[in-house]
Each structure stands twice: as structure tokens, then as C-alpha cells.
Amino acid sequence: MKIKNDELRKMNDNELDKKLLEIRKALMKANAQIATGTVPDNPGEVKVLKKTIARIHTIRTEKRRQVNKV
């Protein structure tokens, strides 16, 4: 579920919030699978989801800084 930076930068704040919520739900689901002892569908998915969440936060911060500069 990796999303490219260009796609994220094209989104507005509301779309980013929705995408962030969606990814957090997917991360919770993956963590629940691991906690219950079942094998997740894709073991590397947790890492990708965490990085995507960080990427979204970074882009949101960059957008806020641009607004404050202008």
C-alpha cells in the first residue's frame, strides 16, 4: 500500500486526513494479526505502512510551512 510522494503532494488536507485514517486502520489490523499470533498476509506491510504515515505527516508539515512563509 505504498503511495508515491507525488500522489500525496497532489492531495489536499482533507484527502490526506482520509488517507492517513485509512492507513492507520490498516496498520492496526496488521498489528492485531501479529498480536494474535496469526501470520500476516504480507510481513513487510507494517514497515511500509509506518513509512507511509511518516511521509504523510512530513508532507502536511511542509504544506503548513509554505502557508506560513507566504
Features:
70 residues; mainly alpha; Helix Hairpins; elongated
Main sheet summary: none
Helix content: over 70%
CATH architecture name: Orthogonal Bundle
Q: Unreliable runs, pLDDT <50, ≥5 residues? A: none
The tally of beta strands, per DSSP, is: 0
Return the average pLDDT rounded to an integer: 92
Strand content: under 5%
SSE order: HHH
Q: Tell me the domain tally.
A: 1
Number of helices: 3
Which fold name corresponds to the CATH topology?
Helix Hairpins
Would you kindly provide a written description of the structure presented here, covering whatever features stand out?
This protein is an all-alpha fold and 70 residues long. Helix content is 79%, strand content 0%. The chain contains three helices and no strands. The protein is elongated and about 50 Å long. The mean pLDDT is 92.
Quick take:
With 70 residues, the chain is an all-alpha fold. It has helices at 5-10, 13-36, 45-69.
Write the layout of secondary structure elements.
Layout: H1 5-10, H2 13-36, H3 45-69
Helix pairs in contact: 2-3
